[in-house]
Q: What sequence folds into this?
């Protein structure tokens, strides 16, 4: 039997949901794999929701908003874009970025909506079942997703993303704008390091371990593990539990 | 004397009529919309995109149509026209003829099965005859109201539709009937007819298949149009590589068309060219035009982008005829280039930019109502009152009085509403109905008992999805207390049965699985409310538009999908909470900032309705920029009008005037503002409390020392010339006067068009000629932008011998003023050089925003555009609103405007403000955000993100949501670093419930 993916869509009320309605009114046929959650604005789609969907083993997630400039709430879709970009950066690390897609559909683009669903469904089919829900159940990947969810629940990351457009487009507190590329690099570094920290923390939650053990367990360079463990200690999330030979053993708090 | 009636009739349900209906119904009047076609929406519903933002037309229009369609106090009477009128202002008796649709509007659910089964193919009027509809049809899929109708001319009476209609709505014997209504006022908003180019034989429209009109092209561009948005030519369905757009078809044409300018064609053509290119990269658009009339806000920027980013080619030429190659149906245009060569060029498709004509019904209407039409057949209006007809109590808005674009029409709609407000304010709230609901049950603490109603929608859903199977499945889900299917869940009898079931089965949650919540959720919420449940304990899911209709050939998969969707709704509804709409009291006073023409009009209109007005003017005199203008281009006396207006404002006991006064500080929000004003003369401050703010700070002349303006007394501005024209002697001595247009406008510093200067120049040129016909007047211009009826004065000026020379760049115009007689040299657009001796040089310097604009924008927390004019909430549909509720905008503070346009805007802002002031309390939306103060760290991210300025920090430094301003978009919640914000009704747990219903529990947990 052919693989029929389970795909979730977050559609904004004003444009993309209306576009989906128009596809219906125009009887444009598309694959029946999509289930829709209606939100008022694509900017409401917290990356955490998308991660939840992936963690529940759904095969793909679509987020659709108004075309840029058309947002019913002025620029909510730009915010959606900022969030999505950050999410994509981390999902790229674990090769799940192909399973999410952000795009724009206007209320008059029934055909475009159907085409997008069509293309995305095909793409997910070609990727095969989510490694999480497939028979092999990739639990390591699930751990990594769990870590990414922690990253997007983290106030540091949320603060950065929430201020992105202000400081790259308008002005920061000094009345200056930060170059987008520069900001992007800062964000990318922050995402990566928070991802390491989450992975380390989650690994410690399961079992206290040394830097070496953690490095093997989550496949990250030892120096990086150590550096980020220090930050976890500072935050009061980890501490030394004892020493094994020459290796301190860390535990989660 | 007969009593006044608190209801209004609006004739025409296009965007202007719809806007006026919404304004007036929100201000306490009963509104009847009389619409000649089957549904409201007008021409705007046919458009693909709108300029200059390329907004999707239907996206922005359809929420307004839906709102009007379900408004408690708006009654839409379609397929109707006025046949007679008696009475006078305040109390009219109107006879209306309603044509039969042959379909019972009470019963039709708009399901569309009749049209599916109809064997007769008729022409689709909405798609401009480019596609096929049926003899029984609806105008367009999103039509409001959504009732089908039978085209009697096409119908063969086979009876099939009657057979398939499950609700028995078809009635072949229904007859036209008369309706009599008693209303206090009438507002005319019939819009326009497009010019029919078949009379212009040389263009071959109707004969050459690839010559189409602009409105047909608009449908071609539309994603919901006949070609699904692909740019194809009608003769063979290929993509036309070369498309020519011909401007002024039926406009600015005394011989075959109309003398006036249709005002909108230059811009819509630029838009159509840009969108065509966007849809189909292969298309190369060329626009043939005389002038580019991009006189509106941000229009010139759009034209520039069209040329630079989209490669749209402009050729300054009027094409006299079109030849067709009969073999391949290509079209050959012959024109004179700017260099004077005669060129023949082949195009694959030609679009005729057809002008705006008065509606064909206007003569009949004018005699039925006793109103006058002007020389062109449009509605005659009064001087300085562009929305008043010649008959008291009857008002006009939109294109029916003069060709105009969407925002101008919307402004006029509100302006016309302001007249009704002033006329009928004593009988406000007398004709409206307020609905009473049973007391709301408290269901807190009860276990969820969900009732599920699944719609067959005739065969629309039931023909694909196995509805009984879904019902049986539903019954197996936790907490479902009751489930049934309905033939039509939306029909009136089902509403009664839902209410009965709620009581019978003691339901405390309701789910409907049917069509789209965008149109039907309000109906079902209403039903739930009538049964005593909180309306938010309801959830709807769409198993038609997004399931059965799009998976017609996969019934099993569609059924599985429907089960999932219903399950998601059932899971979610259990997490839904009852929400209350908050009441917000309104301080009924108004702050008007700026005492020019627009501010004065706004103040006076609201004072007439009994509101206290604080009118703040920074100058020592009222009147603003209009003090420099002595008459309009039509010859009306501005100073006389202005003095009388100021006199009325000064005498009005409800208006307090603060001169020499600025705003010092401003706090508060919709309904409850506190403003400190300071008198700059004596430094006295005063605190004012008010519910709304109207910003009318105007514009000033852009006076810079260009062309030695400050040094040489023979180089003056147009307003100085106007003053000089009052003293006739000075002009009688002049032999030659040169006017230079666009000095300080449309340049790098001020890239926008100042809109008024072309008409100013023509007006003054005509005055010079009237005083001294021997004086030669030369006008150096870039594009002559005498839009609308002003075009006739341009023609008159040419007849009187005024010389017009067009140049490309201001650098091509030089003035040597070393000698007593100045020498003006100009290199024209066509490359000719002229040396003109002149004893007076007049500069058209344009308008800029006044000093202090930025400061005020920061205090009000409302935005400015790149040109330092205030930026409205939406350039098309909310032209005098700010995104922040309770603050309105009018006059030249928004963008350059004529006096009459400023008057309309002032009145429009007043009418918009009235939609708030007419209520003692405003209900905030139930779907709003709220902050958990314990979690909030005061980082201010949400404050910056909120598009409505609905969030502020309290004295403890934590964020507080002003619920009255919150629109519930949820941006703040999705961005809050501490997750301290919840969006009611879109809470995390509610969304996760839906997600879990589909995705199951977390794996490995």
A:
């Amino acid at each position: 039997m052919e693989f029929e993916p389970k795909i979730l869509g977050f559609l904004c009320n004003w444009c993309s949901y209306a576009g989906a309605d128009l596809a219906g009114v125009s009887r444009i046929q598309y694959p029946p794999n999509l289930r829709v959650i209606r939100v008022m604005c694509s900017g409401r789609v917290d990356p955490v929701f998308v991660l939840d969907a992936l963690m529940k083993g759904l095969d793909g997630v679509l987020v659709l908003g108004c075309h840029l400039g058309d947002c019913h709430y002025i620029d909510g879709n730009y915010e959606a874009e900022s969030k999505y970009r950050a999410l994509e950066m981390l999902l790229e690390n674990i090769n799940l970025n192909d399973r999410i897609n952000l795009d724009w559909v206007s209320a008059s683009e029934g055909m475009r909506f159907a085409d997008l669903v069509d293309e995305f469904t095909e793409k997910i089919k070609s990727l095969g079942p989510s490694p999480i829900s497939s028979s092999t159940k990739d639990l390591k990947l699930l751990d990594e997703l769990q870590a990414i969810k922690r990253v997007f629940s983290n106030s540091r990351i949320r603060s950065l993303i929430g201020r992105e457009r202000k400081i790259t487009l308008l002005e920061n507190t000094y009345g200056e704008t930060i170059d987008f590329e520069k900001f992007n690099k800062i964000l990318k570094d922050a995402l990566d390091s928070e991802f390491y920290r989450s992975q380390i923390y989650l690994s410690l939650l399961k079992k206290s371990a040394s830097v070496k053990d953690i490095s093997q367990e989550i496949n990250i360079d030892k120096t990086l593990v150590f550096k980020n463990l220090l930050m976890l200690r500072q935050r009061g999330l980890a501490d030394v539990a004892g020493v094994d030979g020459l290796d301190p053993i860390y535990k989660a708090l | 004397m007969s009593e006044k009636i608190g209801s209004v009739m609006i004739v025409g349900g296009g965007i202007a009529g719809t806007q006026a209906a919404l304004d007036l119904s929100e201000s306490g009047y009963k509104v009847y919309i009389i619409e000649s076609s089957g549904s409201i929406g007008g021409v705007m519903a046919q458009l693909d995109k709108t300029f200059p933002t390329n907004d999707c037309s239907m996206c922005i229009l359809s929420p307004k149509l839906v709102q009007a369609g379900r408004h408690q106090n708006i009654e839409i009477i379609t397929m109707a026209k006025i046949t007679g009128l008696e009475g006078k202002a305040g109390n009219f008796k109107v006879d209306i003829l309603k044509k039969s649709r042959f379909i019972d509007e009470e019963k039709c659910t708009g399901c569309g099965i009749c049209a599916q089964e109809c064997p007769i193919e008729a022409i689709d009027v909405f798609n401009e005859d480019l596609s096929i509809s049926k003899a029984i049809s609806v105008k367009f899929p999103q039509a409001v109201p959504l009732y089908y109708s039978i085209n009697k001319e096409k119908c063969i009476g086979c009876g099939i539709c009657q057979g398939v209609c499950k609700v028995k709505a078809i009635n072949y014997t229904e007859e036209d009937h008369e309706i009599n209504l008693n209303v206090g006022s009438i507002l005319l908003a019939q819009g326009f007819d497009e010019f029919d180019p078949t009379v212009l034989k040389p263009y071959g429209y109707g004969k050459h298949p690839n010559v189409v009109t602009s409105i047909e092209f608009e449908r071609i561009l539309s994603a919901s149009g006949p070609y699904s948005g692909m740019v194809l030519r009608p003769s063979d369905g290929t993509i036309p590589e070369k498309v020519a757009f011909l401007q002024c078809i039926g406009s600015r044409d005394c011989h075959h068309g109309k003398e006036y300018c249709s005002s909108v064609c230059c811009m819509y053509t630029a838009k159509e060219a840009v969108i065509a290119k966007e849809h189909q990269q292969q298309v190369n658009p060329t626009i043939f035009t005389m002038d580019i009339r991009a006189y509106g806000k941000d229009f010139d920027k759009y034209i520039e982008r069209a040329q630079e980013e989209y490669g749209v080619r402009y050729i300054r030429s009027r094409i006299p005829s079109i030849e067709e190659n009969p073999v391949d149906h290509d079209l050959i245009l012959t024109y004179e280039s700017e260099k004077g060569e005669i060129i023949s060029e082949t195009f694959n498709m030609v679009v005729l930019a057809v002008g705006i004509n008065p509606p064909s019904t206007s003569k009949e209407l004018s005699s039925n109502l006793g109103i006058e039409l002007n020389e062109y057949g449009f509605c005659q209006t009064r001087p300085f009152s562009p929305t008043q007809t010649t008959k008291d109590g009857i008002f006009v808005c939109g294109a029916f009085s003069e060709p105009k674009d969407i925002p101008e029409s919307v402004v006029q709609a509100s302006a016309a509403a302001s007249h009704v407000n002033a006329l009928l304010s004593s009988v406000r709230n007398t004709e409206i109905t307020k609905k009473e609901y049973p007391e709301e049950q408290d269901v807190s603490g009860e276990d969820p008992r969900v009732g599920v109603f699944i719609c067959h929608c005739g065969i629309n859903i039931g023909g694909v999805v196995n509805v009984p199977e879904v019902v049986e499945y539903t019954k197996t889900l936790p907490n479902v207390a009751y489930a049934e299917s309905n033939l039509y869940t939306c029909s009136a009898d089902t509403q009664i049965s839902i209410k009965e079931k709620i009581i019978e089965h003691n339901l405390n949650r309701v789910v409907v699985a049917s069509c789209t919540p965008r149109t039907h959720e309000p109906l079902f919420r209403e039903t739930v409310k009538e049964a005593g449940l909180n309306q938010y304990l309801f959830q709807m899911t769409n198993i038609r538009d997004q399931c059965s209709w799009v998976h017609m050939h996969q019934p099993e998969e569609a059924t599985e999908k429907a089960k999932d969707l219903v399950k998601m709704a059932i899971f979610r509804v259990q997490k839904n909470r009852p929400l209350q709409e908050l009441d917000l009291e309104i301080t009924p006073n108004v702050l008007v900032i700026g005492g020019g023409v627009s501010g004065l009009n706004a103040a006076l209109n609201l004072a007439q309705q009994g509101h206290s007005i604080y009118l703040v003017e920074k100058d020592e005199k009222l009147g603003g920029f209009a003090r420099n203008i002595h008459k309009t281009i039509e010859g009306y006396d501005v100073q006389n009008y202005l003095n009388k207006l100021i006199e009325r404002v000064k005498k009005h006991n409800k208006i307090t005037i603060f001169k020499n006064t600025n705003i010092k500080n401003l706090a508060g929000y919709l309904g409850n503002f506190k403003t400190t004003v300071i008198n700059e003369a004596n430094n006295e401050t005063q605190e004012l409390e008010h519910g709304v703010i109207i910003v009318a700070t105007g514009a000033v002349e852009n006076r810079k020392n260009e062309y030695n303006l400050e040094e040489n007394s023979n180089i003056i501005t147009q307003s100085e010339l106007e003053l000089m024209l009052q003293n006739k002697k000075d002009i009688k001595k002049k032999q030659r006067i040169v006017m230079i247009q666009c000095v300080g406008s449309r340049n790098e510093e001020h890239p926008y068009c100042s809109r008024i200067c072309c008409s100013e120049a023509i007006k003054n040129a005509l005055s010079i000629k009237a005083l001294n016909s021997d004086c030669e007047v030369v006008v150096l211009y870039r594009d002559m932008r005498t839009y609308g009826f002003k075009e006739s004065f341009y023609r008159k000026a040419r007849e009187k011998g005024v010389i017009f020379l067009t140049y490309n760049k201001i650098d091509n115009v030089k003035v040597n003023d070393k000698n007593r007689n100045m020498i003006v040299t100009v290199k024209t657009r066509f490359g000719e050089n002229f040396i003109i001796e002149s004893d007076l040089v007049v500069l058209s310097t344009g308008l800029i925003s006044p000093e202090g604009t930025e400061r005020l924008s920061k205090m009000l927390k409302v935005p400015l555009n790149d040109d330092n004019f205030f930026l409205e909430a939406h350039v098309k549909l909310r032209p005098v609103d700010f995104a922040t509720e309770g603050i309105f905008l009018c006059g030249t503070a928004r963008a350059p405007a004529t006096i009459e346009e400023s008057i309309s805007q002032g009145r429009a802002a007043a009418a918009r403000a009235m939609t708030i002031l007419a209520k003692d309390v405003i209900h905030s939306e139930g779907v709003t955000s709220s902050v958990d103060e314990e979690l909030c760290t005061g980082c201010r991210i949400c404050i910056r993100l909120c598009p409505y300025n609905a969030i502020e920090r309290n004295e403890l430094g934590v964020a507080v949501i002003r619920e009255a301003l919150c629109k519930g978009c949820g941006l703040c919640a999705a961005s809050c670093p501490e997750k301290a914000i919840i969006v009611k009704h879109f809470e995390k747990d509610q969304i996760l419930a839906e997600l879990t219903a589909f995705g199951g529990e977390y794996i490995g947990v």
